[in-house]
Write a structure and sequence with these properties.
The structure is a homodimer. With about 200 residues, chain A is an all-alpha fold. Helix content of chain A is about 70%, strand content about 0%. The interface of A and B includes residues 116, 118, 166 and 194 of A.
Chain lengths: ~200, ~200
């Protein structure tokens, strides 16, 4: 799936670079979704994106460079976690958002292929680690707001809470490969909220 | 996957077949640890195990059959979860046991390769799902004992508790690829215990 505004022959350099990068990113994710890491080739990404093969080789180096850049580019968006007004509401909405993204017929398979790639490619693993660390850091505001409202103990380790919310989801998706329905996502969030209230994550001064 | 009692040429069916199967299992896991799923070949497993290549092909079919049988064989052991006398103790010991197994220099890499294989091979994914479901089912006795002792609410969903204990460990190991130390394992167990006490997993009558 190539973005609609992909215009490889544009005369405006800035825009052109950004569009080329997005087109290659889209093609990389689509190829990953269709064929997995083992089936990802520069040739297919070039073909699908409409960017010349030699350009892809020169700028991205190879398949690992394509995956790394797709993750780096994904990390430049303006995503923010839900803000529902309550700690429990935010955690539940965050879990549900993760669940939905992996259930998405387009986003889900390419994301799964990125996780597979992380098993096989150290650069992909490093890029994925960076992307997720950034997502977790952005999500910490959910816990900070709850501390400000007095909903959770002072000194709660926000990063630990965020990971507790989403870990059971990834466990079902990629480890046990069990169905991840809305109820399971809600229960993961509720468990993290209960553990936070009980002070399990109050490890910081 | 070829059934374990397929013995085309053996004269002493039980012992020889079992030893051959174990040797092939050991070789499969060692090859997976060394080269990953992409590098797993029947030839290398035959060479390492000392079992003839044509025998391996005939009985296991190929690399997927080798992984499936290694998991099926792993599931025939007599593993039982820790029994420390308390719910919190059992959950902590279970988490620590999982952490140690993946930190093991031999067991860890081959287990990681099996999880990688599950991304790429539907038969491997199905065998891993079965293996883990059996491990989780065996671990439920930890929760059953705690209910008998009155440590956790009646009607607690034991399977959900077990998954809550281990999910954060797998999340660190294979998703965020963050360090999984003893403290992180202990905190995962403590969070599951707190959520259980709070009634989050009390979904059954």
């Amino acid at each position: 799936m190539v973005a609609a505004d992909t215009q490889p022959s544009s005369r405006r350099p800035g825009g052109r670079t950004a569009r080329t990068r997005a087109a290659v990113r889209d093609a990389t994710l689509a190829e990953l979704a269709a064929h997995g890491y083992a089936g990802l080739t520069v040739e297919a990404v070039a073909e699908r994106s409409g960017v010349h093969r030699t350009t892809v080789y020169r700028r991205w180096g190879g398949v690992d460079g394509l995956i790394v850049d797709a993750l780096d580019l994904a990390g430049t968006d303006d995503w923010q976690p839900p803000d529902t007004g309550t700690f429990a509401g935010d955690c539940g909405a965050l879990a549900e958002e993760v669940r939905r993204s992996f259930a998405d017929p387009v986003e889900g398979p390419s994301a799964a292929a990125v996780f597979e790639a992380a098993f096989r490619s150290p650069p992909a693993a490093e890029a994925l680690r960076g992307f997720l660390a950034d997502r977790h850091a952005r999500s910490e505001v959910v816990v900070e707001r709850a501390m400000t409202r007095g909903e959770v103990p002072a000194g709660t380790d926000a990063g630990a809470v965020v990971r507790a919310v989403v870990a059971p989801l990834y466990h079902r998706l990629f480890i046990t490969r069990e169905v991840l329905d809305a109820e399971a996502a809600a229960r993961a969030a509720a468990a993290a909220v209960a553990a936070t209230s009980a002070g399990v994550f109050s490890s910081k001064g």
